[in-house]
Fold this sequence. Notes:
two-stranded antiparallel sheet; twelve-stranded antiparallel barrel; 48% strand; mainly beta; Porin; single chain; globular
Amino acid sequence: MKKLTLSAALLCAVCAWSPAAGAGRDKDKSADMVLPDTELIDIPTAGILDYYGFMLKTRAYSEGGVIGSLNFGVLERLNLGASMTVDKLIGSDAPIRMRRPEIQVKFRFFDGGYYIPAAAVGYDGQGYYYDGDARKYLEKGKGLYLAGSKEAWISNLVLHGGFNIPDFDNNYLFGFLGANYTLEDKASFILEYDSLFHKDDPTRLNVGARIYITPYFQLDMGLRELNASQKFSNGDRRKTERIVQLRYSTNF
Length: 252
């Protein structure tokens, strides 16, 4: 409980400080504008942080684990970031295990047109379910990916899709699809279908909701692997996982 209280206090401190840091940089922007989503639950989008943008994200997952990440808009179209997994941080289970940091890079090379979606290329090494004996994630990170996003059919409905190569040893090409619908800049409903094309790595059906507490601060709640059936490569059983995620973004 002390660990959880300390984590919440640190996040609140950052949230309180960051608007003041960024308030003087761009006074012309509307304070009520919701920023584009850079990712849904697991899959990336073509959205990026603005130049001088900053995002802090924490995800609480099964068995008391937490993934923390920082991302920055270092150039007009380029984002850089890093993330790290800490197993059993929340609760009384022991021992706490910190995993190696992973990097994220995203470059948006096309802003989209009337028919063609916006597109970005990137790299994300953050996986899920770390196997300490094998020293690898049972669900690999996206690795090298190409993502596209476009509003379609009705206002505020955005479709996403792309391809990724998570492992350069095998060079298997995977795919992912997703969609989110934003309701009056108050909530976004998310559906995604991940890890396509290879039955050795089963597909993952994820759903969730993103609540915009403020334009800068969002609360995500999701269910991962609704279609879980097969086992992991180490024999552990796959199961549906509940996650809670806090996202805070602003400009310096």
